[in-house]
Amino acid sequence: MTDDRLGEFLANVESPLHGPPPRIVFFTGTSPRKDAFVASFLKGTPIRPVNVGRDLSAHLLSSDFRSMPLEAADWLARLFPDEPICIGRIQILFDPGMDLNIIPLFRRMSANRLLCIDWPGGFSLTGQTLFLGSDADDRREFKVESGMAVLDEAEGRLF
After folding, report:
1. How many other CB atoms sit within 10 Å of the CB of residue 105?
2. Angstrom distance (rounded) from CA 1 to CA 41
3. How many CA atoms lie within 13 A of 118 on its CB side?
4. Span 4-31, mean pLDDT?
C-alpha cells in the first residue's frame, strides 16, 4: 500500500469502535502468517518498523533495574519523534518489572504521528478489547478507545 493509499485508507475509516481517523493502528493475530501480513501492509509506506524487544533491551543493558521503567518510557517517547513508526516485538513492555501503563504510553507516542503496533495477541470484537495470553491465569485485556483502530490478521479487515 503506498503512502497516499495508506493515508486515504486511514482518513476514510469510520467506525463506532474508533471514531475519527485513528492515530494508533494495532495489527492483531497470532498465526505464523502475521509477520507477512504486517510487512505487506507497511510495504511502500514511509512507516519505519522498529524492533522494540531488540533495541530497547540493548539500550537498557547498562541501566539500573529501578530506573528501567522510566528509561524505557523516555526511550520510546524519543523514538523517531516526527516519523510514522510500527513497533513490533513489544513483549518486553509487558514485563512486570517494567511497570508501564501501556495504553497511555502509546497515546503519548502517537500525539504527532501515526503509530502502528504489531500487537503480540488477539482482538475480541464483542468486548472491543485487545488481549494477551490465552488462558485465564495469564490473560490481560486492554480496551480499544477512540482514535485507535485494529487490523486483525485472521479477519483481514479493520475494526
Report:
1. 15
2. 6
3. 26
4. 66
